[in-house]
Design a protein that fits this description.
With 354 residues, this protein is mostly helical. It is 77% helix and 0% strand.
């Protein structure tokens, strides 16, 4: 118990130090990105050195900083860290599963008196228990919601059984489970080998293999067979998207018309920004009033048009650069702007389904 609690406390304590550095010291986007890479290692090493849970230290500290990232990072840092961690996570996930394959022969050799058949049997039993417990917990939570809705207001008083069943079946184990198993010390404090460590690791490998491969591959078929519909919200996703975009533009207009009303009247760029948001509000209000928020063209057609528009602009910049009429630094600046605009369009419509 002390190992768990102090591991969490250790992670939060170190996270507070990094929070202060990000928030109040004169750091740049590059420094902030490097600090996000250093923080989890420091949390883990310090906690393990003090004989607390390094895994829980990283999880608690990471959650603390992640929840407050909008306060401590500017837009440049958020974009940069997102790109760095996306590539890094992809690589680390691949390395972890490579390690599974490389470590498995060593783990099997270290099972000792326990036979492979017996170890596999234990792994299947543990996997079965995990799957059943998760299914029972999700279905039980659904039943509890129905009962609780008689006494309190709930988001959905009739959640049904199909959604919870899908949620329960989607409980694949992976990197986190492996990290927790690998965090088990090789030796105890008295110098003796940790009892059945290799068996625990082998069982973890079995759990990961079955849940990722079997549950992962059968999940789409289960969703199709159950004919599960989106019950996450009473408002369709497309309408939610329109409402959010309208509210964002209204929030921007509130600031421009309030605090910076005088500045807007004097500056053409601010006027164009205000005009853009005013147009967005009218557009989205019109869509909501028509009770239809569907665009007239498909996502694929939209992406094709935007890609051709941006490509034409890139070609123009390339020609200007070849003629050496414009400074190279300026060309790079507007290439970066085009990258951001293209990424903006890509993210905005990535969640739509035709």
């Amino acid at each position: 118990f002390i190992v768990i609690v102090m591991g969490i406390a250790c992670g939060i304590a170190i996270a507070l130090v990094f929070y202060a550095i990000h928030r109040w010291l004169p750091v740049t986007a590059n420094i902030n990105t490097l600090l996000t890479l250093i923080a989890p290692y420091l949390m883990y090493i310090v906690a393990e050195h003090l004989h607390f849970s390094g895994v829980l230290s990283v999880v608690s500290g990471g959650l603390f900083l992640s929840i407050r990232s909008h306060r401590i990072f500017d837009h440049t840092t958020r974009l940069r860290t997102e790109n760095v961690w996306s590539a890094l996570s992809f690589g680390l996930n691949g390395i972890v599963f490579m390690l599974i394959g490389l470590e498995l022969p060593v783990i099997i050799a270290g099972l000792g008196e326990i036979s492979k058949f017996e170890a596999i049997k234990y792994g299947l039993i543990v996997t079965g228990v995990l799957i059943v417990v998760r299914l029972l917990s999700t279905l039980g939570a659904s039943a509890f919601t129905v009962v609780a809705s008689r006494f309190i207001t709930t988001a959905d008083n009739r959640p049904g059984w199909r959604g919870p069943l899908i949620f329960g079946w989607a409980g694949m184990r992976g990197v986190v489970s492996l990290a927790a198993a690998l965090s088990i010390p090789v030796y105890l404090s008295n110098g003796e080998a940790f009892p059945e460590r290799n068996l625990i690791l082998f069982i973890t490998f079995i759990v990961i293999l079955i849940t990722l491969v079997f549950q992962g591959l059968t999940l789409p078929a289960l969703v199709k067979w159950l004919k599960v519909e989106d019950r996450d919200a009473t408002i369709p996703r497309e309408r939610q998207d329109t409402i959010v975009q309208k509210k964002l533009s209204m929030a921007a207009l509130k600031v421009l018309d309030g605090k910076y009303a005088d500045a807007v009247t004097k500056d053409e760029i601010l006027q164009s920004i205000k005009l853009k948001h005013s147009g967005n509000v009218r557009l989205f209000e019109g869509r909501l009033a028509e009770h239809s928020v569907e665009r007239k063209i498909t996502d694929e057609e939209y992406r094709k048009i935007i890609a051709e528009v941006v490509m034409a602009q890139r070609e123009l910049l390339h020609q200007l650069n070849r003629k050496q009429e414009i400074d190279d630094e300026l060309i790079r600046k507007y290439n970066a702007i085009l990258d951001l605009e293209e990424e903006n369009f890509s993210v905005r419509f990535s969640g739509h389904h035709e």
